[in-house]
Design a protein that fits this description.
By secondary structure, the protein is α+β, with helices and mostly antiparallel strands. The chain is about 25% helix and about 25% strand. Strand 1 and strand 2 form a beta hairpin. The site of one manganese (II) ion has 4 residues, from strand 6. Its EC number is 6.3.1.2.
């Protein structure tokens, strides 16, 4: 640690006794939103009673000029609650509130990608889209170097780390475990977690989730990860190629199914979906995350950035149809192209648009 960096003083053991103090019926609500650079922000307010439904939650606002979301001379951005979850940090009746950002002109904020996605999902609700996202990420120390890596060098090549167990193979498992439990406590549909190919790289999966709730849950799970890691003094990076060179990048594999693909003979619907996806490669890549071309080199289990391909059990293609799905003739497909920093509202939104058609917002 450099001399200019002060020690982390976060001490959750000390915090514990204050968390137990009575609140006299008041509720702490943490409003979460997405800022102007794909980051997450939040602030707290006190509510006088426990909300039963999302409509019970008041609209709120913030200074959009401080988050890259509005000009200084017209800086109020409104926060409209869309979902809420039990708060795994404050416990009790306290809640985490997912919100959409809106302008004073009654229009969605330019960074409110949920709005258009929700319209698409609603219009095509009869297809009953399910999504499952595999969120990869890397844990860094305060100076931005992956945990467990030698200070002025690199660890031994990839091989022993993926799903690894034991000192020197995996790093920061406490953070992963704490995050997993926090997600479960909040009722998120987290479906698993595993150590990844690069040391200090991890993955968790959320899903299957219905339509728009996929984006809500994934964003909240990212918020939890940053929040948990903060208590351990670690940084989370969702960069798709955090370390240049012969190290795996990080993705957000997007598993997709519809009523039709899950039905008997659904393989036909999957093939039709492939045909549609093959015609919109550039449109998809445009919203599949920043710096994704650094990751999609065709090496390290990635496909080409420019060309759409699909195949059964092929991890080098844009879309993989799991072997078990091909064998059963129905199920889901895995779009392997999205980068780890992609916005799940944009990703799931364009999948619905490509498969089912545009909707006038
Ligand atoms: P991989 O073998 O690619 O590492 P994972 O086990 O990490 O796969 O993730 C698989 C994901 O697929 C999970 O998030 C799961 O929820 C999701 N999934 C499973 N079945 C479906 C389905 N029918 N529709 C959409 N997503 C699904
Ligand atoms: Mn103020
Ligand atoms: Mn996976
Ligand atoms: Mn993975
Ligand atoms: Mn995968």
């Amino acid at each position: 640690m450099s001399s200019s960096t002060s020690q982390i003083i976060s001490n959750t053991a000390n915090l514990e006794k204050y968390l137990k103090l009575p609140q006299h019926g008041k509720i702490m609500a943490e409003y979460v939103w997405i800022d102007g650079s794909n980051g997450i922000r939040s602030k707290s307010r006190t509510l006088n009673s426990k909300p039963e439904k999302v409509e019970d939650l008041p609209e709120w606002n913030f200074d959009g000029s401080s988050t890259g979301q509005a000009p200084g001379n017209n800086s109020d951005v409104y926060l409209r609650p869309v979902a809420f979850y039990p708060d795994p940090f404050r416990l009790g009746d306290n809640i985490i509130v997912m919100t959409e950002t809106w302008g004073a002109d009654g229009k969605p904020n330019p960074f409110n990608f949920r709005h258009d996605a929700a319209i698409l999902m609603e219009a095509h609700a009869k297809h009953e889209f399910w999504f499952g996202l595999e969120q990869e990420y890397t844990l860094l120390d305060i100076e931005g170097w992956p945990y467990g890596w030698p200070k002025n060098g690199f660890p031994a090549p990839q091989g022993p780390y993926y799903c690894g167990v034991g000192t020197g193979k995996v790093f920061c498992r406490d953070i992963v475990e704490a995050h997993y439990k926090a997600c479960l406590y909040a009722g998120l549909n987290i479906s698993g977690t595993n150590a990844e190919v690069m040391p200090a790289q991890w993955e968790y999966q959320v899903g299957p989730c219905d339509g728009i709730s996929m984006g809500d849950q994934l964003w909240i799970s990212r918020f939890f990860l940053h929040r948990v890691a903060e208590e351990f003094g670690a940084k989370v990076t969702f960069a798709p190629k955090p370390i240049p060179g012969d190290w795996n990048g990080a993705g957000l594999h997007t598993n997709v199914s519809t009523k039709e693909t899950r039905a008997e003979g659904g393989m036909k619907a999957i093939e039709e979906a492939m045909e549609k996806l093959s015609k919109r490669q550039a449109e998809h890549m445009a919203v599949y995350g920043e710096d994704n071309q650094l990751r999609m080199t065709g090496k390290h289990e990635t496909s080409s950035f420019d060309k759409f391909t699909w195949g059964v059990a092929n991890r080098g293609s844009s879309v993989r149809v799991p072997r078990s799905v091909a064998a059963e003739g129905k199920g889901y497909f895995e779009d392997r192209r999205p980068a780890s920093n992609g916005c799940p509202y944009q990703i799931t939104g364009i999948v619905v648009e490509t498969l089912c058609g545009k909707v006038e917002g």
